[in-house]
Design a protein that fits this description.
By secondary structure, the protein is α+β, with helices and mostly antiparallel strands. The protein contains 4 helices and 4 strands; from the N terminus they run H-H-H-H-E-E-E-E. The protein has a 4-stranded antiparallel beta sheet. The longest helix is centred in the middle third of the chain and has 22 residues, at 55-76. It is globular and about 50 Å long.
Length: 135
């Protein structure tokens, strides 16, 4: 939980940083936590964890994160590094209104594997209370 809180603090700081940069950097930090084995911290970074989730469902999300890392270990000898590449931010407006309903982003993160392969993944993000979360 402490790591997730520090990520939230990092995501909310500095109004000089644009939203694309914030979303991209936050996505990278969440995935770095996943690679480091902090599965609970990774799950805490999802927007779903900010609502009340049944304990069993949250445990399943943590187990899924762990299984993903284990699969990458088996298929690619593990994830060597995570690097944020770019992000695209979208503003969703309420129907027939200029009022902003939601701010979302598509962050692109490159995973480098120990077997020398690379993969770029799309990380959906959402801004809530000035904090970027994984969707």
């Amino acid at each position: 939980m402490g790591v997730a809180i520090s990520l939230i603090g990092m995501a909310a700081c500095s109004s000089d940083v644009n939203q694309e940069e914030r979303a991209m950097t936050t996505a990278q930090k969440y995935y770095e936590q996943l690679v480091a084995g902090n599965y609970e911290g990774f799950v805490e970074g999802t927007i779903n964890s900010q609502d009340s989730l049944p304990a069993g469902y949250k445990e399943q999300l943590v187990l899924n994160a762990k299984m993903y890392v284990e699969r990458m270990q088996n298929e690619h000898q593990g994830i060597r590094s995570v690097k944020a590449m770019r992000a695209q931010v979208d503003t969703l407006k309420a129907h027939n209104s200029d009022e902003i309903e939601a701010i979302t982003a598509r962050a692109f993160v490159a995973l480098s594997f120990a077997d020398s392969t690379k993969e770029e993944i799309l990380v959906p993000m959402v801004l809530k209370n000035d904090v970027w979360y994984l969707r």
